[in-house]
Amino acid sequence: MNMSFAQQTGAESPGKGRRQQPTIKGLSFLEPFGFALAGCSGGLVLIWLANEPISPLVGVAAVFVVVMSLGGIWFARARTKRSDGCKAEQALRIVESMPVFAWSANPNGGFVYMSRGIRAFTGLPAKDLAPLGSDEFGLRHVAHSDRFESDGRMTDWYGTTIDVDEEKKAEAELREREQQLSRLVDSVPCLIWCLAPDGEPTYFNKRLVDYTGLPIEQLDPSGSGRLSAAVKAIIHPDDAITVMNTVRRSIMTGEPFSLKHRLRRSDGVHRWVEARAEPMRNTEGIIVLWYGVCLDIEDQVQAQEELRRTQETLARASQAASLAELSASIAHEVNQPLAAIVANSHACQRWLTADPPNIERARSTVGRIIRDSNATADVISRIRALFKQSTAARRRATLDVVVAEVQGCMAESARQNYVSIETEIEADLPPVIFDRVQIQQVLVNLIRNAIEAMEPIESAKSLGIRVRRCGDVVQVEIRDHGPGVDYPDRIFEPFVTTKKNGMGMGLAICRSIIESHGGRLWVDGNQPGETTFTFALPVAAKYAE
After folding, report:
1. How far is the C-alpha of 501 from the C-alpha of 512, rounded, in Å?
2. Cα separation values, 371 from 340, 444, 504, Å
């Protein structure tokens, strides 16, 4: 209720004295005045009391109006109190229903009020909770005070407490995962880096920084950019242009890239690495980052280089061995015809120096000399053709003819060593394609070896030759009754021999000749008493079944 007092002064009438002061039931007033009554329901009532005398009825009416106005004010205030109570109850329900813990405290931090949520969460009453700020429930407090005394002293604290335990656990788990990922990226045995969509480096892992000694922070982005600075700093100058062009082409096309280049190590040594990069795209297919790795392949490159050098050395050694084998083969194969030439030359000399000279016998001996000389020339040319892998001299024929020719040539040698030759040739043999002189060399070598293998034997010596068809091949077998072969798996290797004065080239040459014809040569039986060397040549295609 607001009351205002207004003093009203009036001029005295001529000839009249001061007026009597107004009264209401014995109340007297020194001056005229008025009541201003404001109420929620009564509105504004203004009662003027003049200095003129009033009748009792007017006075009673005035008092009635005042009483009614005061009653309206009282009822308005009562209704306001009830409304304030409803609002307070509603505010309490809101506070208790909020998903946070509400509380109030005195200026010293002692709890004055706390919501049901706090009591349910802690299980403790307010008196048992520690002062504000010293409890350890893992809660976050948001406090605010806007109640101060007139002298500035704080009177109350109002605050909320939010349960952030799950949030803190999630943050801790996220930090742990981030640390694990960081440790993983730094521990993998490769150099990892990232590029922005425009190709600028954004990340080097610890291994890459330790390897190159160049943190990404030291790359100067000014000028041509970090990529150019990184290439200039750690890529071999001979590889820099290739690396830049490859990266830029992939940035433009969005295609992954892979290349090998030399990377400078922190000690200044350039080592070969293999770099690979893949783009990472968002859901819209736009590249947001490039992930790349570098693998140190220096040891692998050096091993490959060493292998290349070894292969070159082996190739030169193989050429030298081939030359040595060619020389040994020529010496081995021409030894017998040259010996025959020498023997026939001596015989011719004797026939010519006889008294009288035996011209006919000398002429016959000269014919044998010419034959042996031609055979020597043929052997040399065929050996050269063998090492050159030439097939120009090969013709289609049957092997029985060649076997018969060689048997006739070796008959004298067999007779001198008391060896009988038994031949078994199958009828209607299919033709094969072969070089006559080379196959003769093989047969001569195998027959001569068989004869020499039986030299220590005092009993009857026999050598068997068998020619037959076995499927798509024609097979020739030379069998002797010598001491056998101790190591059949190595007997065909060059310079491996069982003879005291042998060169170890005869069987190696035989195998090379047979294999150059598409055939195979092997030995059967290493038991004392019998050894069989066998070779097989494929039947000519027209006659193959």
Report:
1. 22
2. 10, 16, 27
Distance CA 168, CA 175 (A): 10
Instruction: Say if CB 510 and CB 442 are below 8 A apart.
Output: yes
- The more confident residue out of 485 and 295 is 295
Gap between the Cα atoms of 41 and 66, Å rounded: 13
Which residue matches tokens 């500035």?
152
Nearest of 542, 543, 535 to residue 402 by alpha carbon: 535
pLDDT of amino acid 334: 67
Instruction: Name residue 398's amino acid.
Output: T
Location of structure tokens 């050096």: 302
| CB proximity list for 397: less than 8 A, separation 6 or greater | 431, 432, 434, 436
**How many beta carbons lie within 10 A of that of residue 355, not counting itself?**
5
Identify the three-state secondary structure at position 259: strand
Query: What is the pLDDT, as a whole number, of residue 493?
Result: 78
- For residues 418 and 446, what is the distance between their CA atoms, to the nearest angstrom? 17
What is the distance between the alpha carbons of residues 53 and 56, in angstroms, rounded to a whole number? 10
Render pLDDT for 48-102 as a digit per residue (tens, 0 to 9).
Answer: 444 445 455 544 554 454 455 545 555 566 666 566 567 767 777 777 777 777 7
- Is residue 10 within 8 A of residue 51, CB to CB? The reply is yes
Say whether pTM exceeds 0.85.
Answer: no
C-alpha–C-alpha distance, residues 172 and 168, integer Å? 6
Residue 358 belongs to what H/E stretch? none
CB atoms within 10 A of CB 279: 20
Determine which of 14-23, 42-51, 207-216, 280-289 has the lowest per-residue pLDDT on average: 42-51
Residue range 7-20: average pLDDT? 42
Listed in order, strand segments (DSSP E) in 97-175 are 101-105, 111-114, 139-144, 157-163
CB 534 within 8 A of CB 476: yes
Contacts of 324 by beta carbon, 8 Å cutoff, 6+ apart: none
22-45 confidence digits (pLDDT tens): 444 444 434 443 433 333 333 334
Rounded to whole angstroms, the Cα distance separating 310 from 304 reads 10
Q: In what order do the strands lie in the sheet with 419-425?
A: 419-425, 461-470, 473-480, 531-538, 520-524
Distance of CA 233 to the CA centre of its chain: 26
